[in-house]
């Protein structure tokens, strides 16, 4: 049984509908991750920081090898410097992922405060040229408040951030699962599977 006349055999559509299970798999993994993140948000933050550390170590080793091979796209000195910084960050993240996640959250807090102040100043300066500047001021105030809260209690900030990541992963996973089953039924309808 071939694909419909609108979708020739070997088309991208046919390939996607035949491999609907890949979307299903991604969706299931996202839902599992989302549930775990919602149930244990601080542990999830630590695991994410740990994985970030592993990736930094791997990248650092690859860049270091390319620096000594002479295949690095930048100068050898910069490549070695970047590789050593990546490896050092990765080792710290693997040894103490919760502290690493807390430090990263403090950087986020600083960025939120600076960005919030920038928005407030910007809104005040252009208030005569635009309407609705109060929304910029409000978003700036909320960013500053969130940044201050994260800075004052990084552990709570980690929990909240992980909860949001978990909720988004759940939504993403459910949407992937729905899309997978729709592709499967569409593929059966047109005979692509």
UniProtKB/TrEMBL annotation:
GO terms for cellular component: plasma membrane. The chain crosses the membrane at residues 20-42, 48-68, 80-98, 104-122, 134-152, 158-181. Coiled coil: none annotated. It comes from the Bacteria. The keyword Aminoacyl-tRNA synthetase does not apply. Keywords: Membrane, Transmembrane, Transmembrane helix. The keyword Transmembrane applies. This is Membrane protein.
């Amino acid at each position: 049984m071939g694909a419909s006349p609108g979708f020739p055999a070997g088309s991208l559509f046919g390939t996607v509908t035949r491999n609907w299970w890949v979307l299903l798999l991604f969706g299931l993994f996202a839902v599992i991750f989302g549930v775990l993140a919602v149930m244990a948000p601080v542990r999830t933050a630590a695991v994410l920081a740990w994985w970030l550390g592993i990736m930094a170590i791997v990248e650092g080793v690859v860049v270091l090898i390319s620096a000594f091979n002479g295949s690095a796209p930048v100068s050898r000195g910069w490549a070695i410097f970047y590789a050593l910084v990546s490896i050092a960050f990765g080792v710290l993240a693997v040894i103490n992922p919760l502290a690493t996640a807390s430090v990263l959250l403090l950087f986020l807090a600083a960025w939120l405060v600076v960005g919030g102040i920038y928005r407030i100043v910007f809104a005040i300066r252009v208030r005569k040229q635009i309407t609705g500047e109060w929304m910029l001021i409000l978003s700036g105030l909320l960013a500053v408040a969130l940044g201050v809260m994260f800075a004052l209690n990084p552990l709570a900030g980690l929990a909240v951030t992980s909860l949001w990541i978990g909720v988004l992963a759940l939504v993403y996973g459910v949407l992937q699962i729905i899309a997978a089953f729709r592709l499967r039924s569409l593929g059966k309808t047109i005979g692509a599977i």
